[in-house]
Amino acid sequence: MQAGGGFCSSVACIPLPHPVLPMAQAGGGLSPVLCASDPIPSISFPTLVLAVAMTTLFVLKLAAFVQRNRSGLLAVSCAGIFGANIFYHAFPQQTFRTVYQCWSRGQPAELPEQLRSLFWEVLRDTDVRSAGNVQAFAAFGFQPVSAGIPWLPSGSLVGIPANFANATDDGQGVVNRVVMINGEEVDWHSEDGVHLKEALTLSKEAQKFSLAREVIYSQSSSPILQAAVAPTCLLGVSLSAVAVKQLLGLYSSPLLLRGLYNLAALVVGLVGYFLAYDAVSHWLDYRCDRRTAALSEDYARGGVEFYEKLLFRNRTLRKLMGKRGEEMYAPSGNLFPRYGFRLKQAPYTSRRDLIVKVLKLHQA
C-alpha cells in the first residue's frame, strides 16, 4: 500500500499517537502507525505472578496495620466524619452564605430595613439570649434557610428571601422577579402563574413562623445532633461487629468467611445510618415546629398557613414542571423520596397537622 511516496507492506494501517510504534513515511514526514501484522505485546507469566504477590502482600500488611491500630483509626475516622459534617455550620460566612447569598447587579443584595425589623421582632419573641451572634442576610429563593451554631465565634446565619419585603399584600415581591421553570419564564397572568403567586405570598404571621423556626433550629443545637449521627453509627457498627466476631469465634475462621461477614456488617451499617439519619431529621423537624408554634396563637396560625401555602406551591409546581414535577412532588404536595426508601425531611402534611393540634390547644 503506497502512501505519499512511502510504502507499507501490511494489510491495514491505523494511525496512533504512540512514539514507539513503527513509522511510515506520509507526505514527506513520519507518522506513527500500527500494522495489523504486528504482534500485540503481552505480559509475561512471571511478571503477572509478581504483581499478584505484591498486591497480596500489600493487602495483608494493610490488614495487619488496621488490626493493630483499629482503635486509633476508628477514633480518627469518627472525628473526621463529624468535622466534615459540622464544617459549614462552624464557618457559615465562608461556606453557607456564599452559596445562598442573593446578588443584585453584581453586588450582594442588602436586606431591606423592613425585613431587619421583622427579624429583630422574631428574635425578641423567641427570647434569644445571644442575639448578636445571630445575623440575617438576603438569600435567593422563596424560603428562609439557616446554618451555624450561635455559641461559636462565627455565630449563626439566617437567610431571608428578599421577596418577603413586599409579598404580604399584593404579591409584588413575587411577580417582579423572573422565575424560570423548564427553561421558560413563568407567566404570572396565567392560571398556573396566579396560583404560584398566591402560594408564594405569605402573611406577616407566616413569615414570622418561618423565620422563628430557623432561629429555634440553630439555638437548639440541631446541627450538632444531625452531624453526630454518622460517627455514632460508625462507632456502633464497628464495636458491634468486633463483639459478634469474638462471640462467634470468627477471628480463627477462613479469610473468605471473615470477608463475607465484614461485607454484611458494612451493608447493615449503611442501612442503619440511612434510617437513623432520617429518623433524627424527622424528630428535629417536629421539635422545631412544635416549639415555634407554642410561642403564641399567632405563630401557630402562621405555621398552619406556611405549610398550607408550601403544599399548594408544590402542587402547582408539579403541574408546571410536567413529568419532572410528577417525579418530585406527590399529589398532596409532599416530596417524593429522592433515593428510594429514604425520606430526609418529615412530610409537610404531618407537620401541618402537628401545628393544627398546637393551635387547638391555644384556642382551648
Automatic annotation (TrEMBL):
Cellular component GO terms held in the UniProt record: membrane
Membrane-traversing stretches: 45-66, 73-91, 255-276
Signal sequence interval, chain numbering: none
Keyword tags: Membrane, Transmembrane, Transmembrane helix
Coiled coil: none
Domain of life: Eukaryota
InterPro entries per the UniProt record, alphabetical: TMEM177
Family membership: Belongs to the TMEM177 family.
Matching PANTHER family: TRANSMEMBRANE PROTEIN 177
Function: Plays a role in the early steps of cytochrome c oxidase subunit II (MT-CO2/COX2) maturation and is required for the stabilization of COX20 and the newly synthesized MT-CO2/COX2 protein.
Name of the featured protein: Transmembrane protein 177
Designated gene of the protein: TMEM177
